[in-house]
């Protein structure tokens, strides 16, 4: 069984995000980027499924500019067999990304699409769901446990009330949550080998995808600075203070 | 615990992707290509990416880069802001300053033809050039030890990943590889932890003066456009440090970079004598001086970082070669302190090392020998000449203070062309300069105002520093009792103050003082390894990828 894993290049989670002075977005130039941590979890899960003999081939796919090759090399070092680079220098919105992934999934005839539940840059949490809708296949989101048995996947999801277990028919989309696994350390020899694995470049046109611009970013502003706290002496004072702020 | 390690072999392994290491790698590939042969070159870097641990002023003299890549402009090297003006101030007090007439500026401090750059970005560019020529660069992998067999350096072992705080293997334990090479080039920067061991093991520094150090603390500010003068360089001496005394020396810088950014910093010599001194707090109050404030007022601080620098220069240079390897850049100590520049000299030393290695390997050499052709090339180069001419600057300042020492340096540089017929030595190592706390006056630093000055923790936050929490503490103590038993009563444990990242704390929860090491905060500046009066702190590399994540420092 072939698994397709989408990996997004995002500003690294350690970086303190800075908003551009004109409010047109966040500063990305010269800032460290890395693979979206939820996608790392998806990648790790694919590799574990392959190690268990459930998956036979792992294909990593990314959408973005030339620098996204780094992200694909990371995926290849994790254990992807090959990679597909959908080249696009401009902004990619969730629906466009979903259309591209759906097209790749179809072309590759992959049975499993694994993706992070969301990317830590736009936090959209839409792409995986849209892929499932576009292809009219099953979806199981926020997975904290994945088991594959023949043509079915059993997925445990973390929901407000506890854990929910779903059984879905393959092909299916599974998006990964934080507690699904802990991605391994990449080994130097694997990184070395990854440099030699093949990356196929395709364009939106090759995939028959027209970029959709349904969303327009009007303004980006930094969160307001935290104001100074006050010290209260009694619980009454605390209640009073909360009331005066309209919090009680 | 013995573990099985994978082994890879290269012609040359370089430790550290800074200006010297990357210049070594690029030069090796250029020379191999010119000879129509192959040389395999691998660079390991402990930072999470190339540039993540790079911090420098920086006013950059392009001399070495011109030699390495004469076409650097076409290749898009990030040298975008030519120096447009040079101001030098003597700060007499927290409000008074005297601007030095250009006529009296020592020649070494002239910056015509130089550029204000981000060294981190220059290194990222050098990394791209190197990879384009086939150099393998592995960021996120820290060289932990040198492999030494029969007295010959055979390469390095990369640090293990997945070891917990107690030193036990976690489920994801991944042993570090052995990277073996015919020659190993150590380019770790100032006070490299392997370089330090090699200098001791091969007695490389036995004929040199002690190395001298300073800590540089730097911030990047985005300022209102009306206060921004692209290309303006402002250097200063004096307040908050000594102008006429010699107990706390150093200097300040403020560079007007691109995109309304101002780079500001204070360099504090680690030869300071008062254990109550805090370089971090000196820097914070320095920004309130009217000369500095006029540029920063109304701006936003966007980055913070710190790094030790080697400033001993010529007199402190250890021997650079040993069987199977060599030291380059600040691991060797090639900074020209009179120019307060070490980037071009670091690059040049790496290029000279590469030339010596390429000559040996391309002629069929098997490596492993002591490559004396490297120091020979060094001696015949402009690098040696430049460092020789500047050899008296640091010692003059240490002996006579910034004003008189600076004046003598002016006379030497401008009237004698850097060639006084004598050499001034400074033989006291920096860890031995502290006076007892009881014999030193306490320093009361003003509270940070949250606009121009800040506390340590909010500063470290801006360095985007991160370490995996569950790993052995990488600030190791040779004797765990010294901080509380000796350093505290004698020096009020100065680590609490010289560390610019709040790593060291003396806490008392009622049961007596306890020494706490917050290793996750460490910005890898190495100051503790240098300044601890008992030389009890040994900095070793943490898990690869840990440490600061500097963007354009």
UniProtKB/TrEMBL annotation, chain A:
Identification of the protein by name: Electron transfer flavoprotein subunit beta
Pfam families: ETF
UniProt record, GO biological process: carboxylic acid catabolic process
Keywords annotated in UniProt: Electron transport, Transport
PANTHER family named among the record's database cross-references: ELECTRON TRANSFER FLAVOPROTEIN BETA-SUBUNIT (PTHR21294), ELECTRON TRANSFER FLAVOPROTEIN SUBUNIT BETA (PTHR21294:SF8)
Cofactors: AMP
Matching SUPFAM superfamilies: Adenine nucleotide alpha hydrolases-like
Description of how the protein assembles with itself and partners: Heterodimer of an alpha and a beta subunit.
Electron transport in keyword set: yes
InterPro entries: ETF_a/b_N (IPR014730), ETF_b (IPR012255), ETF_beta_N (IPR033948), Rossmann-like_a/b/a_fold (IPR014729)
Similarity field: Belongs to the ETF beta-subunit/FixA family.
Function, in words: The electron transfer flavoprotein serves as a specific electron acceptor for other dehydrogenases. It transfers the electrons to the main respiratory chain via ETF-ubiquinone oxidoreductase (ETF dehydrogenase).
Automatic annotation (TrEMBL), chain B:
Signal peptide residues on this chain, from the entry's feature table: none
Reaction equation(s) it catalyzes: a ubiquinone + reduced [electron-transfer flavoprotein] = a ubiquinol + oxidized [electron-transfer flavoprotein] + H(+)
UniProt cross-references to Gene3D superfamilies, sorted A to Z: 3.30.70.20, 3.30.9.90, FAD/NAD(P)-binding domain
Domain 4Fe-4S ferredoxin-type span(s) in chain numbering: 513-542
Cofactor, how bound (note): Binds 1 [4Fe-4S] cluster.
PROSITE patterns in UniProt: 4FE4S_FER_2, PROKAR_LIPOPROTEIN
Function comment: Accepts electrons from ETF and reduces ubiquinone.
Protein name per the record: Electron transfer flavoprotein-ubiquinone oxidoreductase
Organism this protein belongs to: Sinimarinibacterium flocculans
